[in-house]
TrEMBL record:
InterPro entries: Oxoglu/Fe-dep_dioxygenase_dom, Pro_4_hyd_alph. Signal peptide: none annotated. It comes from the Eukaryota. This is Fe2OG dioxygenase domain-containing protein. One of its GO terms (molecular function) is dioxygenase activity. The keyword Metal-binding applies. It comes from Megalops atlanticus (Tarpon). Keywords: Dioxygenase, Iron, Metal-binding, Oxidoreductase, Vitamin C. It holds the Pfam family OGFOD2-like. Its cofactor is L-ascorbate. Residues 215-309 form the Fe2OG dioxygenase domain. PANTHER family: 2-OXOGLUTARATE AND IRON-DEPENDENT OXYGENASE DOMAIN-CONTAINING PROTEIN 2.
């Protein structure tokens, strides 16, 4: 099935599980689901006790944090749209040019990879002559941007961070970072990057995960620094395919690590460390478990693009593993379309190996 090339004309939705599932409890490094207090106690009270939550006061504090997070998620679309309007009206960019993708920003090696992927003779086997697979299964590393562009983009991001403009953070796991759609990067930069450059590559590497049909995204930048976020707990993404580009700056340690797909029990999964190099990207399946080890010095900025294929997620929500229950969302929302309400098959094609 072919993907609709003009995602701007598609109405995207969110699954209602967004408000209730995958709530991250930072203190206990645990993702939870909350439908009711009774369900929550049944599912998590015992495991929380083993992690140090042993008193009624501690458990009550968790319930308050979850209630606050659910309320935040319910208001997220409206608040995000309000921030985007305010930023567009009041924020003056330092480098206006970086908001619009130019071929000169892209590494020559990446352009070679994309040009091959677009060619009539392209195949996965041929593409792997340009991209060396890593020890982690189906994780690939290749240059994406020039170092000069990475430096200018970080300067722009730091300039924004230092401004009085309102800022929304990427998710509950990343406390320092920037939502790029709010800053104005979607239309001129991220969308053409996904459609014109990343999708041809993903189509060859991940045909079983909707790589040929990536029609929406969520893009953000995360920041790791001393006395701020140092690492990222083991998790999977709300995406079919993820691109993670190391923008800089200087840092030590902080390797990424990858396990199996999320459906594989943790006890049966082995993790492999992967180094992250400045200006290079790691491409992987979004449902593959992964995390980031602690940096020991310096500062690192990463550009993350969660790419979604509605034809995949319309069958089965990747976050709750159920038929999606659609609710309205802003912009690309979480990448679901109305096809999810037409009784599509619940089988997802993204394989585990």
């Amino acid at each position: 099935m072919q993907c609709n090339e003009d995602s701007a004309k598609i109405k995207f939705y969110t699954c209602s599980c967004f408000c209730t599932d995958n709530i991250f409890l930072e203190e206990y490094k645990l993702h939870v689901r909350f439908i009711s207090e009774q369900q929550f106690r049944t599912d998590y009270q015992a495991v929380l006790s083993t992690l140090g939550c042993t008193t009624d006061v501690q458990f009550g504090n968790i319930l308050k944090k979850i209630e606050t997070e659910i309320d935040r998620r319910r208001e997220l679309g409206v608040k995000s749209a309000e921030r985007a309007v305010s930023i567009k009206k009041n924020y003056k960019p330092l480098h206006k040019e970086v908001y619009y993708l130019q071929k000169s920003y892209l590494a020559p090696e990446f352009l070679q990879i994309v040009n091959y992927s677009r060619s009539d003779k392209a195949s996965k086997e041929g593409l792997l002559d340009f991209i060396l697979p890593l020890a982690a299964p189906r994780v690939y590393r290749f240059p994406v941007f020039t170092k000069k562009f990475c430096d200018e983009l970080i300067e722009e991001l730091e300039h924004f961070e230092q401004s009085d403009a309102p800022k929304g953070r990427p998710n509950t796991m990343n406390n320092y970072g920037i939502l790029l759609n709010e800053l104005g990067f979607d239309e001129g930069f991220i969308t053409p990057l996904r459609e014109n450059y990343l999708r041809p590559v993903a189509a060859l590497l991940y045909p079983d995960c909707g790589g040929h049909c990536l029609d929406s995204h969520k893009a953000f930048v995360v920041k790791y620094a001393m006395n701020e976020d140092l690492d990222l707990s083991y998790h999977y993404d709300n995406a079919e395919v993820t691109l993670n580009v190391c923008l800089g700056k200087e840092f030590t340690e902080g390797n990424l690590y990858f396990g199996d797909m999320r459906q594989v029990p943790l006890s049966d999964s082995e993790c492999v460390e992967v180094e992250h190099h400045v200006a290079e990207g790691l491409l992987h399946r979004g449902q593959q478990m992964h995390g980031a080890l602690r940096i020991s010095s310096g500062q690192r900025w990463n550009l993350i693009v969660w790419m979604r294929a509605s034809r995949e997620r319309n069958r089965l929500c990747p976050m709750c593993s159920k038929t999606p229950r659609l609710v309205a969302g802003e912009g690309f929302a979480d990448g679901f379309t109305e096809e999810a309400q037409t009784g599509a098959s619940q089988n997802t094609s993204c394989v585990l190996n």
